[in-house]
Amino acid sequence: MALESSIFHLLLFSILLPSGALLTLHTLQAHSESIRPARILQENNSSRASNSSSNSSYVPAMFIFGDSSADCGTGIINRWLQERADHLPYGRDFDTHRPTGRFCNGRIPVDYLAQRLGLPFVPPWLPRFRGMQDVLHGMNYASAGAGILSFNALDRGNMISFMQQVGLFTETFQQIQTRRGARDAIDMISKSLFYISIGSNDFIHYLLQNSSGVQSRYWPWEFNQLLVRNIRNELRSFYDTHARRMVVMGVAPLGCAPYYLSHYRSWNGGCVEAINNMIFEFNTAMRFMVYELGQELPDANITFCDAFEGFMDIVKNYQSYGFQTVTDACCGFGKYGGWFMCRADITCRNASNHIWWDRFHPTDRVNAILADNVWSGMHSKMCYPVYLQEMVS
Questions:
Q1: Which of 6, 19, 164, 210 is least buried, going by the fewest C-beta atoms within 10 A?
Q2: pLDDT digits (tens, 9 = 90+) for 127-180
Q3: Edge-to-edge order in the sheet of strand 383-384
Q4: DSSP H or E stretch at residue 139
Q5: Do the beta carbons of residue 35 and residue 80 sit within 8 Å?
């Protein structure tokens, strides 16, 4: 725990580059010039007007935090990230048919949820674009490669960790207060939706690959509890900045991902149970924590949506959902398409037949189903105690 604490303080509002130079978040603007953040933001905004179904919305804004499951372009600022989504075929089935930084062939769940809420696509956090106009309908701080534990950034380049994303939102909230006044800012935040989807990278890069000696420091249940405690602390931080409506996503069944089917040499495409069992235990602990916290905090409306449950229902009943390929990535190479990340020359023709887009991320169709479940449990129950539709109605 001493190591965890010291690294948390080391990385507060800072990023450690591979060269060893320390780069603060406030100076990221200069480093984003060469990777065309303006184009990425333009691609994200090009369908914003048409995405909103009416002039009214359920919430004034949506603030998004997490990893590549929710990243819509923030990860583009990371020039050292090995696995990127700023090139085709990523985005080929998106509204603009161009890459936007989403790790998918099309939309991710937050895009579908924004549509349900009557909001335009929520723009990514980029250093050059943090004016009031960009936060009118919220901001997406999610960063590919990020984890719950802040020292994740030490091993994985300069992605924005969960703790840093919370810090960036606090900065945004202060800007809103300055521009609109404290009363209006608090009213806006308390009525907005906070969406958190993070945790996969903590399993991928620490426990499952034994990075930083985590396995020698924590038993699996201890590691899960460490993750849950850290998320709980950040949810309290959101609450302290007047957030009241929160959707907390669980981790999907990584043991079914093409990477692990290949890595563990699954001979029949069966999921890796050792991995899934640990994630199942984590999600169970998360569900209990979210329920307790919701009871503890006055006026808080927090729900936990178990992506594991929703995803496994698709895997087990794939034919009834209209999928043909369960184990192989649409875009990938080698056994199950799990050897390395997606390239244009190794992509299937019709991604809608596949559950997996690349070796870690689902297709647009899966994301749409999961979003339907978060909204109303349309296909299977995965949210506790309430669905998003109930929360905002």
A1: 19
A2: 655 567 778 899 999 999 899 987 544 455 567 889 999 999 999 999 899 989
A3: 138-140, 62-66, 193-197, 245-249, 301-305, 383-384
A4: strand 138-140
A5: no
Report how far apart, in Å, the C-alpha atoms of 143 and of each of 64, 161, 367 are: 10, 7, 18
Would you please indicate which residues are annotated as catalytic (active-site) residues?
68, 358, 361
Q: Tell me how far CA of residue 67 lies from CA of 54, 73, 248, 319, in angstroms.
A: 29, 11, 13, 29
CA angle (84, 85, 87) in 5-degree steps: 105
Beta-ladder partners of 384: 304
Q: Which of 56, 109, 197, 15 is nearest to 373 (CA)?
A: 109
Q: What digits encode the pLDDT tens for the residues 327-346?
A: 999 999 999 999 877 888 88
Per DSSP, the three-state class of 90 is coil
Closest CA to 251 of 332, 193, 327, 196: 196
The Cα 369–Cα 380 span in angstroms is 9
3-class DSSP state of 356: strand
